[in-house]
Design a protein that fits this description.
Blueprint (H helix, E strand, L loop, with lengths): L4 H10 L5 H16 L2 H10 L30 H17 L9 H13 L3 H18 L3 H22 L1
Length: 163
């Protein structure tokens, strides 16, 4: 079944039944654990619309296409963040109220990456939507921390631009 996972996934998806979410999720788990096929596993998880989670050992999907367990210190690459952002954008197109809160810390990392490569203005523009989302979403402690970190980066960039 794992060697023909694409065909099996297509057949299951085309013939939806009760319990197929568990079957597809299990297919993804097996692809990841037994074949080390992270991209294939993530494809399964995305088909059943599993949530993108914050980093944890139990999370199946933190950033699309990268194994957060195998490479915990370097998994937040620009490419992985961009892939996940494309997924978030597609979700927002379908539902303008969609917010992927667990992705906000990775957006902050990406904003810092932009600064590091000299794209300071791009980083500033990149921070604005996240600050707006975090302000509108509520006052949970972790949201306040993210909001403060985004605002701090924004102010540092503005100060840098004035110099």
């Amino acid at each position: 079944m794992l060697d023909d996972w694409e065909e099996n996934l297509a057949i299951i998806t085309a013939n939806r039944t009760k319990g197929d979410v568990l079957v597809i999720t299990h297919l993804g788990d097996c692809l990841w654990k037994e074949k080390n096929e992270v991209a294939a596993a993530h494809s399964c998880y995305l088909v059943v619309e599993l949530n993108i989670d914050s980093y944890s050992e139990s999370a199946r999907l933190c950033l699309i296409g990268v194994d957060h367990l195998k490479c915990p210190r370097i998994f937040a690459s620009p490419e992985a963040i961009q892939r996940t952002e494309v997924n978030e954008y597609a979700k927002v197109l379908g539902n303008s109220q969609y917010i992927l809160l667990s992705f906000q810390p990775y957006k902050l990392i990406y904003a810092y990456m932009l600064v590091e490569v000299g794209k300071v203005s791009d980083s500033l523009r990149y921070c604005q939507p996240s600050i707006k989302v975090l302000k509108a979403y509520g006052r949970a402690p972790e949201l306040e921390v993210w909001k403060q970190l985004f605002s701090s980066l924004k102010e540092r960039i503005r100060t840098h631009q004035q110099v």
